[in-house]
Amino acid sequence: MKKILDLMTEQFEQAFSRCGYDAGYAKITVSNRPDLCEYQCNGAMGAAKAYKKAPFLIADAVVAELQNNELFEKVEVVKPGFINIIASEQFLASYADQMAEDPALGFEKTTPAKTAVIDYGGPNVAKPLHVGHLRPAVIGECLKRLLRFAGDKVIGDVHLGDWGLQMGLIIEQLRSEQPDLVYFDENYTGEYPSEAPFTISELETIYPAASARSKEDEAFKERAHTATLKLQEGYRPYRALWQHILNVSVTDLKKNYENLSVSFDVWKGESDADPYIPSMIDDFIAKGLAHESQGALVIDVEEESDTKTIPPCIVRKSDGAALYATSDLATIIQRVQDYKPDEIIYVADNRQEMHFNQVFRVTKKAELAPDTRLIFHGFGTMNGKDGKPFKTREGGVMRLETLISSINDAVYEKIMENRTVSEAEAKNVAKIVGLSALKYGDLSNQSSKDYIFDIDRFSSFEGNTGPYILYTIVRIKSILEKYEASGKNAKDAVSVNKTQTPSEKALLVELVKFNDCIDAAYTELAPHRICSYIYSLSNAFNKFYHENNIMGESDEAKQSGFISLLKLTEKTLETCIDILGFSAPDRM
């Protein structure tokens, strides 16, 4: 289906053309004064300059052409030349009925469909997820779902940090704590154990101990560097240990991401890019792109148009080691070979913008991905109420599972205040609602901006929150259940009312914005647009609910129209929250 604004704009384009004016001035937008009208066209103001004519004269002529148009109930000029528009009730009803018949609510899939890789998550193995991992996981998952809804083929890649110095540190710390392990016996030639010599809890204490020790013990740090190099060169015992670290970590990471309703299509890491590095470096040298600087191999990326200094991209350190940039460049080569993507989207902290700018410029200069668009989707910081990065009360970095537990507890307490369900059900519902509070609290903010994480506000059942959206959906479900319980079949309600009460029409006006909302969110990679839409839609529904006696309506045909409207509202809200990455319970 065409977007409703496009359908209206087409009518205005024809009117402008018939009056002798360029159709480009005919754009229709949602009114910024909903107290006066539903839609507006300001094209006459722009046309006045081009045609040297008073804007109200242009507007008058256009409006005259649109009288008796079935799409509009009223089209009128407001001086000096604005055109205010009220949509026809029948037109809105017809559009809504078409939405209801389509599983995608009338949204037209992207043509042609793109193949996109989304790089999000980015956890390091052997370390627990903390609050800093929330935003990339939540934003990346939403973008993945959004692009898929739009018809694109999407590969979500967690891109693990599994190949750096932390591996050598863990290996050397293990040697200190468990020197009798066969991995440290140089004479051992048998098969290595299938079970890891540590649990995830033990592993999560090993790395901090090793990291702290490396800052005080230079000899230990040097041994860790050597162990890292031996691992990367394929030393068999260290590869076996590394595989244990990976297996134990990934199992735990999957469990924690599952609690966030976040999943990845591939669990690749920096190690997967390693085989591509030697030939890539050779290619940089052969093309004359790389040169030595203080022993390191670098590529100049600064351009004349830059207004600030962009340092060279280091692709090999003086000791021959690879860096993050080296790994990211090799990963681009791997992804191009494996997936032939039209675009790769990196969901990362704003503070990494310079890094990705360097990587993207090297990619362009070296022609590593000539047919692939590289996109940096930066996000701001999640701050506490003090405006500083979110911490525990003790000042440390909070584990993500602790944050999830805290918000679930806050929601549970609110549910139990007005308990209408059992304690066990309340705990299950609290997990569903808590996830909505967490994700909506994040996604309702523009990704690139910092925001304040406020558990009390995010878990509230009132205002612009996830729980409020879910409460609206549950309210609709409850009404539909009552309708069924009265002996009527909601499936028989197949058309909204052609004439509506004011709040009924206002709800329709919000509903038919769905396609425009999803299109804008998709084009701009902007989840907050979906949040803004469903908040307005929920407000419109709750106003409609309070002003119309749905179950008490004696006119069965009118009541059936109400039920059709409820079903469409529920479907639209459920579709949107699924894209955002959470779901609604049956009761709250």
Please describe what this structure looks like.
By secondary structure, the chain is an alpha/beta fold. Among the domains are: 4-87, Gyrase A, domain 2 (2-Layer Sandwich), CATH 3.30.1360; 165-259, no CATH class. Helices cover 52% and strands 10% of the residues. The chain has helices at 4-18, 43-51, 55-65, 89-101, 134-149, 165-177, 200-216, 218-232, 236-259, 270-273, 277-286, 324-339, 353-366, 400-417, 423-443, 455-458, 466-485, 502-511, 514-524, 527-547, 556-580, and strands at residues 29-30, 39-41, 72-78, 82-87, 115-119, 153-157, 290-293, 296-299, 313-316, 343-349, 373-379, 382-383, 451-452. Strand 7 (290-293) and strand 8 form a beta hairpin. The longest helix is centred in the last third of the chain and has 25 residues, at 556-580. It is globular and about 90 Å long. It starts with a helix and ends in an 8-residue tail after the last helix.
Structural class: alpha/beta
DSSP strand (E) fraction?
5-15%
Work out the radius of gyration.
29 Å
Biggest sheet statistics? 4 strands, antiparallel
Distance between the termini: 35 Å
The strand count comes to 13
Q: Indicate the mean pLDDT.
A: 95
Estimate the global geometry from the Cα principal axes: globular
Helix content: 40-55%
Number of helices: 21
Lateral strand order in the biggest sheet:
1-2-4-3
- The poorly predicted ranges are none
Quick gist of this model?
The protein has 588 residues and is α/β, with parallel strands linked by helices. The chain contains 21 helices and 13 strands. It starts with a helix and ends in an 8-residue tail after the last helix.
